[in-house]
Amino acid sequence: MTGAARVLVTGASGLVGRPTLNALVERGYEVHAVARRSAPADVPDGVAWHIVDLLDAGARRALIGSLRASHLLHLAWHAEPGAFWTARENAPWVAATIGLVDEFATAGGARATLAGTCAEYDWSASQPLAEDAPLAPATYYGICKDATRRVVKALAAVGGISLSWGRIFFLYGPREDPRRLVASVARALAAGERAPTSAGMQRRDFLHVDDVAGAFVALLASDVAGAVNIASGTPVTVRSIVEQLAECAGRRDLLDVGALASRPDDPDEITADVRRLRDEVGFAPAFALPEGLAQTLRWWRDQPRVL
Amino acid sequence: MTGAARVLVTGASGLVGRPTLNALVERGYEVHAVARRSAPADVPDGVAWHIVDLLDAGARRALIGSLRASHLLHLAWHAEPGAFWTARENAPWVAATIGLVDEFATAGGARATLAGTCAEYDWSASQPLAEDAPLAPATYYGICKDATRRVVKALAAVGGISLSWGRIFFLYGPREDPRRLVASVARALAAGERAPTSAGMQRRDFLHVDDVAGAFVALLASDVAGAVNIASGTPVTVRSIVEQLAECAGRRDLLDVGALASRPDDPDEITADVRRLRDEVGFAPAFALPEGLAQTLRWWRDQPRVL
């Protein structure tokens, strides 16, 4: 990367966005963050923070036009735990994302990396899922991300920018919303409360959120085009994850595995083929799963008790 | 249809939009037309005309929110002859179309019909192309229309509206832009000028613009969901079309068939399977091709000479 590249990060206050800021500063980017709310206290020095609602087309255009960033890392989307799969708010984010990339190209942008999802794939296809595996999103969220990718990929070609699309699989780590799996169990264990879970025999591909962020930054800094899986490449049962957390907390007694019903249509396995990320982008995760889970549990223990 | 259904027609001043107005008034709809420019002189009585740029999200939302239409016929898109295949303006129309359908559903809309294109299909697939033929748009325009359909189809499900998508093949008729094939030849013949064309051996599916409009209105008034080809179902060579026009004008001498180069990547045949339109929607075209071409030629003869 040449010295003075200016990057705009969207969703900068989010779970993935927040840790990308440190990684981008470390790589020497001039970092501009955009979010709807003001900057968290721990944002690294030198990051310029812009409070803009990207769904407001006029405000978005004004920001993109005045900033003239060379790089775009677009992570913002509607992400309310549970609800996002079918939320009406997906549609405005399709529109805003297409507008954002179009305006970025018009403003002289060179390189964009956007957040996609494993929900673009046909989950019944053979595992692990490489980037050219069949696409058949089963959810509104997945359909919206898939359609967005189709447009921005073609837009990059006519607009003369380089574009990559990081497909996030499953993630965990500090700051996660406690309505999500790992956070719900880690929070309960840290608080000494019972932690009910499903039988958890489904295999998933989990990556620590700092590694997800690091992978996005590495992808942005590379010249790899198209879709790249952002994942560990290693399937693990959900049951194994909650058991590791409980072991780590020394409180296996708090775990109620099987207390919650499994979803009948939940796929047996969703695992990424990570050869593109490893070999073409050159990214290797920093966290092994046991270490990442232990760190996540410590983070929850360090939080002031709200209840 | 129940008596007082209120329809909003977008692209109302366009080639297809204009003749839909008469068909909608005849069917008893309360018709609201929206376009960027003021109403043409020949708009039928009773049509309410709204001058709004649908790419302006605020103005669009205000219109949809105040109108509270039960029906939406969305035909507007960037359509500059020749240029539209790769025009940057396709992206804003993806965003505007998704916004429009989302806002229509929120405002209590019940039934939407949108304009798609044969450019969504894999043109190398076996002919004729039924609605479930493989999709592999080769152009930016086709990619944008295909992605839009993916989103609005899913949006209709979560938003609780009935949605259909009319895939336009090739059209001709009065008022066509003279940069387009049939209009360029008809105009030249009507003016007594030479008409250079390519060899024209490619087979295409042509439908008169009044029938395209009639098919869209019939589709809107039906409860057929999903994609429906809007076409004749009959392939005809481009050469045959220009020869019929020249015969009709009594000026075969003006035709220079083969004077223009053929595009090397032009598919041999693009023809629709029209069983859904005929059997499910119940639509039959009014114009046979020879009659439609003769009427188009007469229209050009009746135009005041500009040059």
Find the count of extended strands of chain A (DSSP E, 2+ residues): 13
Compressed to H and E, one letter per element, the order of chain A equals EHEEHEHEHEEHEEHEEHEEHH
Global structural class of chain A: alpha/beta
Oligomer: homodimer
User: Segments of chain A where pLDDT lies below 50 for 5+ residues?
Assistant: none
CATH architecture of the largest domain in chain A: 3-Layer(aba) Sandwich
Question: What is the helix fraction of residues of chain A, given as a range?
Answer: 25-40%
- What is the terminal separation of chain A in angstroms? 47 Å
Written description of the protein model:
The structure is a homodimer of 307-residue chains. Chain A is of the alpha/beta class. The first copy, chain A, contains 9 helices and 13 strands. The longest helix of chain A has 20 residues, at 140-159. The N and C termini of chain A lie far apart (47 Å). Chain A has helices spanning 17-26, 57-67, 90-106, 140-159, 181-190, 209-221, 238-249, 275-281, 289-302; strands spanning 6-10, 30-35, 48-51, 71-74, 111-117, 162-168, 170-172, 195-197, 203-208, 226-230, 235-237, 255-257, 269-270. Chain A is globular. Chain A has 2 domains: 6-170 and 206-230, NAD(P)-binding Rossmann-like Domain (Rossmann fold); 173-205 and 234-270 and 287-302, Alpha-Beta Complex (UDP-galactose 4-epimerase, domain 1). In chain A, strands 3-2-1-4-5-6-10 form a 7-stranded parallel beta sheet, sandwiched between helices. Chains A and B meet through helix 3 and helix 4 of A and helix 3 and helix 4 of B.
